[in-house]
Amino acid sequence: MSIAPSFSQRTSPRSVMGFTVIELMVVVAITAILAGLAAPSFIDSFRRFRVDTVRDVMQGSITLARIEAVRTSQPVVIRRNVGCGVLLANEWNCGWQVFVDTNGDNILNGADRQIQLVEGQNQTVIRKANVVNPDFLVLDRLGNITQFGQRFEFFPTGLTAAQGQLLCFTTGTRVRVVRNASACP
After folding, report:
1. Which long-range contacts (CB under 8 A, 24 or more apart) does 134-137 make?
2. pLDDT in tens, 159-178
């Protein structure tokens, strides 16, 4: 008995060559259709991620300012940066600085000590939604926010605040995140 296959049992060279052009084109077409359907959800996910990141950085700055105010028993100011482009009076897109305000003028100068500098954020609008003192937020020596009714709005460029997130400050200086709303509850 012979173990080797006979000539007629061997596969022809044509059947082991791989995919045909038509099979390859069908796979590419299906992949393109699936990518086209998934792209819009990826774009929305990236926008939400950017907004979440910027909001988290702001919350971190507020927490840092509170800790420093209590530690030093001095007021701490979070003030928006200017000079990175045309901004509305209450937009914080250029970033912000956190500093101990030893002389109480709410401006970083003289003996004031800078604690943190946050650079501008692209493709996300950051807006302080308070017409009184839109340039800064003050925390007293006990870490409490001195101006009640404050809120920050974070939303993707080209959309509205109602399509983003709000960072709301309650009377007890608790910070809350509210999504897809135009005002704090």
Report:
1. 134/80, 134/89, 134/90, 135/79, 135/80, 135/89, 135/106, 136/77, 136/78, 136/79, 136/80, 136/106, 137/62, 137/65, 137/77, 137/78, 137/79
2. 887 788 998 887 667 888 98
